């Protein structure tokens, strides 16, 4: 039983002060066995996997700068008894279900943005108390606004209930107005760094043009970027000036030999610099460290400082304290950590090693050396992850044979936290030490992150290191070091001056050193080159692929749909880092850049393309040469458990263009996962070729649906039902080519016939396609309907669709040495997709279908694929979905309509003519039989209904004409068929559809088809020679055309009848007629003698036949070589056969081997004859005797003997 109710959204009032509206849900209730399914026409699901499925609707509003408050009142409601079905994901795993209550307030308002604000109202029309469902049938909403109104600078893709108000928010970047030079300095360690004349010269910088007295030292990267709305206001800030020590004598505008500058530089290490904000529902467990903290920067080990040449120097201040607590020792902390493995192969978390029990080893150990400990006391801290939850763990930590036992418990999901185990030892040795971590459980998985040794050390022995205290006191200490700095604020270090034998300082952190470093690199760079620009199409790539990206940019400069004179720009990641992360490699810089360009550029970008693969291995710890982390990804995933990786640590490209924090793209963004110049050039050629290609394929949609079998279930029909529902939303002029796996037989747990059918349909080309079902990184469906290794079988060339993978993990692209099925099929050069839309992690069928609906609803109303996707994602869609492709790829040209009369009734066997007012460059016509309705029933009795497109009756291509004609088979299946016509002009296209009544007719002629066989342009006759394994061409002429309904209507036999080759589905009419047709095939046989038979049926039922004997030889072979007459007296003729047109060289030699005559001639396929008048190269007559001659073609050379007798 099904109930339908229509929704209503009535805007009552829309002012600067308030928005008032009335909402009634549009929902359907489907009763299925012991539960019910609720579908909201304008909604998505709220609940998580394993919880009751309750849909909600999302409405967007503009919000003033002061924010908004929401009030609501339920005016009508209804209580119905029943339990909603459960929400399942489509990952390969079982789900645990629980009918627990889901109490939902009628609505909630979330506000996003900083100066420009938007809001999302989640309206919950349904709530569940465990037994009954409450339906809120009418809700009144009132939203009150505060503050000033602003509009965004960029184009909006979402629908908003209220109108935008106020002026456009346009923020111009600031730029320092000087002619100074900026020099980028790279460092990796904490220390004092020196800038002098030699250092500049060694790095190719002329020191004579730099005045050291005007040098500023700057830096800006304090920690990994953590995004808050208020953070956006600092997008155009320059690196901050830091104090330095200037040893200058002359101040003459150049660096002299004995002049130098010192500054304190820091590494990027430390938990205080590398942490990420927790996700909203994150609740750290007391006693544990949070996975959001890292000791090493997850993106790079290189910090950046800057030299600004014509600034105002900032001298480092001096400090001294003469009184305080005298200290001689400090607690030294040595951190030991190596990032060697990433167990989840995703996210930010790396480990040093692992212990997996049971195995041969239940321990992990490491040798280290300490020389400067005062005594044997130390504190050992281990940072570990546990791979099994709800378990007591028993561990033993051993330092130099002294053991301490630890017991700890991991509650459910606790294995996602870093455990900290702290133990005290008195066995630390001066010199070599061994630390050992043992697990005593019979079953356990432990990941070692790091360990730390804390021990007491003499301050007087400290050198080139940090001395740290727990609090800020006045301390004095004795030390004999050249440089002693206070570094509580590393951006504002101070010199601690020695008074007598003591240094004094009030602070926690001191750096001491006798030496200095040089930066590892210095390079002149531009630090605000991207602040005041403009571009309609923006590409981000690396220096490696900049040339290939520029090729695409140059094409887009003339081919950007919707723009007359577009501005395109290619920007490298290095430029972005210099401008927006102070030179440090942080992917957050890309978001800062894109936000800045969207608020400050004119024009602001309308499309963003990430041109290159990104991986979770930001630092290239896997040592891939060259690194394939071309354009970095965004992830804050910290899950380490292998069993959960398909659900967690998502990669989210949308984040880069989510400017207000609502998890939706504000401008179209796409990624091409190329890793080298070859792949980059191939994908650029593929995009250009796609946009210039027309054909039948542009009105086709390919649909693949999983079957009912999944993880022990044999009743999952919703994949097929969802595919069919989406198909019914498509316009009729699109031809649906459906591969529903329920229709194909199981063979040993897989369905190879479904695979073959899908690839066959794909190779015919399409403009759109989608798959609903189970999947993972490497395959679709449990039955392996498509594996990643199947992709080279795609040969659709430039007939490439946008394909939507409504499944889990098909877009999991960020593994360094692997491809996902969705991104590989996108960059595959010989076909595949022009755009893939796929999730990087697990998804849900309900949200998959919601996104599919939104894609289809926008597919025919947007100019580009990227606009379709962005619009769809702004309504509903899982944020882990990634757009693989150039978002500016043109979808349809401008459409136009033309007057055309198509018969309401079409009878088979009759020729019909269509006339046009104007002549158009290209026409593509297809006519299909009536659709077939099918009801499929599972073994458990469940059913699903769908239709299949009828057999193809006619298709042809016409060019530059004002009329076209067609004819159908005389015994056409009767009913309403599908007539589709595509017409292309120079700048537009038209799609015409009609479903005429098809009727049987009478044969109009009785002459069978005329069949000819060609090798190249040479018509073949009985016993002709052909190349071995060559391609032959069948040409058929017939007044009524060929019956193409079944591939068996054109059949080829070679040497026997046991292996027929069916060619009916490979036919191709000649341009402008349906009376001439051809197809090619390859001779895949080693037999020297071939008996070829060809049969075909025309539209009047006449059968044509062709039988021919052929002799097969290798391509370069020549045969039948003679000279006549032999012996010769006045002249002779060299005769021979060859398979192809070729250059032939004939040479004649004396018996001693001397060449006496040679002739080069172009010979033709078949029999050849060349005359020789028995003279040498100088025209002299030859005497009697024996001679040798050779005939050479290609690499083939044959020598024979002849004689002259006069």
Question: What does the model show?
Answer:
The protein has 1206 residues and is mainly beta. It folds into eight domains: 9-160, Immunoglobulin-like, CATH 2.60.40; 182-316 and 519-523, no CATH class; 334-454, Jelly Rolls, CATH 2.60.120.260; 535-657, Rossmann fold (3-Layer(aba) Sandwich); 696-884, Rossmann fold (3-Layer(aba) Sandwich), CATH 3.40.50; 905-999, Immunoglobulin-like (Sandwich); 1010-1113, Immunoglobulins (Immunoglobulin-like), CATH 2.60.40.10; 1118-1204, Sandwich (Immunoglobulin-like), CATH 2.60.40.1930. It contains ten helices and 79 strands. The strands form 20 sheets. Strands 22, 23, 33, 34, 35, 36 and 37 form a seven-stranded mixed sheet that branches. Strands 46-43-47-50-51-52 form a six-stranded mixed sheet, with helices on both faces. 41% of the residues are buried.
SSE topology:
Layout: E1 2-4, E2 8-14, E3 18-24, E4 27-32, E5 35-40, E6 43-45, E7 55-63, E8 68-81, E9 107-113, E10 117-123, E11 126-128, E12 132-145, E13 150-151, E14 167-168, E15 182-187, E16 191-196, H1 197-202, E17 216-219, E18 240-242, E19 245-247, E20 260-265, E21 303-308, E22 318-319, E23 325-326, E24 329-336, E25 353-357, E26 363-370, E27 378-386, E28 391-399, E29 402-410, E30 418-425, E31 431-439, E32 444-458, E33 465-478, E34 483-486, E35 494-496, E36 498-499, E37 502-513, E38 521-525, E39 537-541, H2 546-556, E40 568-572, H3 573-580, H4 588-600, E41 607-611, E42 669-672, H5 677-691, E43 700-705, E44 709-710, E45 713-714, H6 718-728, E46 735-740, H7 752-763, E47 768-772, E48 779-780, E49 786-787, E50 802-806, H8 821-827, E51 835-839, H9 845-859, H10 865-873, E52 881-884, E53 894-895, E54 905-907, E55 911-928, E56 932-937, E57 943-948, E58 952-967, E59 975-976, E60 978-984, E61 988-994, E62 997-999, E63 1010-1015, E64 1018-1019, E65 1024-1027, E66 1031-1037, E67 1050-1054, E68 1061-1062, E69 1068-1069, E70 1076-1082, ...
Parallel strand pairs: 13-14, 22-35, 23-33, 39-40, 39-41, 41-42, 43-46, 43-47, 47-50, 50-51, 53-61, 54-62, 65-72
Antiparallel strand pairs: 1-4, 2-3, 3-12, 4-5, 6-7, 7-10, 8-12, 9-10, 11-12, 15-21, 15-38, 16-20, 17-18, 17-21, 19-20, 24-32, 25-32, 26-31, 27-30, 27-32, 28-29, 28-31, 33-37, 34-35, 34-37, 36-37, 44-45, 48-49, 51-52, 55-58, 55-60, 56-57, 59-62, 60-61, 63-64, 63-66, 66-70, 67-68, 67-71, 69-70, ...
Helix pairs in contact: 2-5, 3-4, 9-10
